[in-house]
């Protein structure tokens, strides 16, 4: 049966079992409107694993043969992203947030910024470029930028650092020339110095152990993932992220996301360029 034909015949029960399996592992919600999306990707995984029936595929998934859970999760993530996305938050980072974070700290101290989820790397590399371009004290501090995602294929792409025209659409020619090597055929590779300035790690936002293992951060960018979760997963992610913030540390969400509706743990901070959320200074645990 072709992938196309298979995608047409996923039953309600199969759809429900697979959606539930994914939800329990990732927090991602696939409602009835996503039936075709789910069926299509299931068909691809069944073809890749040469399993002829859903029961056969599900049994393989339960055994996690050949790391099938990882392949399944990679197939279901939506990695939409691009350089300098929602750049008003980048302006807020260098205009307000970092000044607060370094106030009273001696030069040479560390600043940790986390891009989670980072998808194929555009966000953490944007942070690195933006700081070099727009934050004069950048050389006075040890700035560490970490990019994390649940999708191992996206992380591999991020580490490789090849990007197409669409990813670069918000960057000026000058920035592209300065930070990328033109490979021809509408493909650019981010320069080695920048590739080396970002570290990548696989993290599931639903997993308190995995998030805590990344340590604590001054600023977290967690943009455009909470929209794919339900209320319970959002709250869990928010609590896990809270534990990863230093007291007074900030979290920036995507424009369609608001922490006020998710968790009372954070303070709302309104700056000229963006609304962000802070772990209260008093909470020094
Ligand atoms: C739309 S991208 C957002 C990328 C970037 N933050 C931005 O705003 O441009 C969403 C990413 O969330 C990741 N993701 C989904 N569920 C996740 C989870 N439970 N833990 C970590 N990352 C997750 C996906 O793999 C995907 O790369």
UniProtKB/TrEMBL annotation:
Source organism of this protein record: Labrys monachus
Protein role: Methylation of the membrane-bound methyl-accepting chemotaxis proteins (MCP) to form gamma-glutamyl methyl ester residues in MCP.
Keywords: Methyltransferase, S-adenosyl-L-methionine, Transferase
GO molecular function, one term: protein-glutamate O-methyltransferase activity
Catalytic reaction annotation: L-glutamyl-[protein] + S-adenosyl-L-methionine = [protein]-L-glutamate 5-O-methyl ester + S-adenosyl-L-homocysteine
PROSITE patterns found in the cross-reference section: CHER
Protein name: Chemotaxis protein methyltransferase
Family matches, as PANTHER family: CHEMOTAXIS PROTEIN METHYLTRANSFERASE, CHEMOTAXIS PROTEIN METHYLTRANSFERASE 2
Domain of life: Bacteria
Domain CheR-type methyltransferase, residue spans: 3-282
Presence of keyword Protein biosynthesis: no
Entry EC no(s): 2.1.1.80
Gene Ontology process terms (BP): methylation
